[in-house]
Amino acid sequence: MNEIITDVEKLNEIGRCQEIDVQKDSKEAREITSQLKRALRKNDNIVALSAPSLGFNKRIFCVDYSDNEIKTYINPVIMNWEGLQLSREVCSALPGKEFIRPRNTKIDLIFQTPTGAIKTQQFKGVAACTIQHEIDHLEGITLQDIGLEIDSDFDDATDEEKQEIIDMYLDSLDMRRDTIHKEIDDDPELHAVSERFRFVEALARGDIKLEQLD
Fold first, then answer.
1. Which of 63, 62, 64, 74 is nearest to 29 (CA)?
2. For position 213, what pLDDT does the model report?
3. Is residue 73 within 8 Å of residue 63, measured between CB atoms?
4. 13, 82, 89, 134: the active-site residue
5. Which tops the pLDDT comparison, 76 or 67?
6. Highest mean pLDDT pick, 28-37, 59-68, 137-146, 197-206
7. Count of C-beta atoms within a 10 Å radius of residue 135
8. Residue 31 is among the residues annotated as catalytic for this protein
């Protein structure tokens, strides 16, 4: 069985994971799912694990719910999202570190099961944060890339000092987002890809109806 990656540089080498054809590549999907489940049962301190964390470049992750029920999510996509919360999170690829990361408070997820069935599920609060964390991994994103690293000094700070740190962090995210959007808009190829993603998301949310496409 593959070991859980505890080196963020090795995890970053995997990059964005590829979609998997559940019917065509069923054997591979079963093997990855089996290894994820075994790793979760072996590590009681981990509640969710994605394929890249075991070195697989595929869009699969598993979540260990209560009563040892482990559910598999294949080719997941967040379709709807609401609210915003600041989540304190850790990651097995960044041992000994803790981060604050903005997350949506409620999300709707569409995904495939190991049999290829397409399902949707809604998540709120901590569960929503967990799902978003795993999808970050599938996108090649780690807490180190976008989170605010905190330590004991942060917990010892006053509420006013904490808020100041968080406000500066959120401002930096806004600046980074604006820079990325400008780079996309200035690059015709990236802009075309971005528009296709927006179209697919709008279609999936029902903002665009098929009869409107004539």
1. 74
2. 40
3. yes
4. 134
5. 76
6. 28-37
7. 20
8. no
pLDDT for 198 beyond 60: no
pLDDT at 205: 54
C-alpha 209 chain-centroid distance: 28
C-alpha span between 84 and 55 (Å, rounded): 31
Alpha-carbon distance of 212 to 149, in angstroms, equals: 46
SS (H, E, C) the chain: CCCCCCCHHHHHHHCCCECCCCCCCHHHHHHHHHHHHHHHHHCCCCCEEEHHHHCCCECEEEEECHHHCEEEEEEEEEEEEECCEEEEECCCCCCCCEEEEEECCEEEEEEECCCCCEEEEEEEHHHHHHHHHHHHHHCCCCHHHHCEEECHHHHHCCHHHHHHHHHHHHHHHHHHHHHHHHHHHHCHHHHHHHHHHHHHHHHHHCCCCHHHHC
Quote the CA–CA distance of 92 and 54 in Å, as a whole number. 11
Query: In this predicted structure, what is the pLDDT of residue 169?
Result: 87
Task: Judge whether 148 and 101 are in contact, CB under 8 Å.
Answer: yes
0.85 surpassed by pTM: no
How confident is the prediction for the chain on average, in pLDDT? Answer: 85
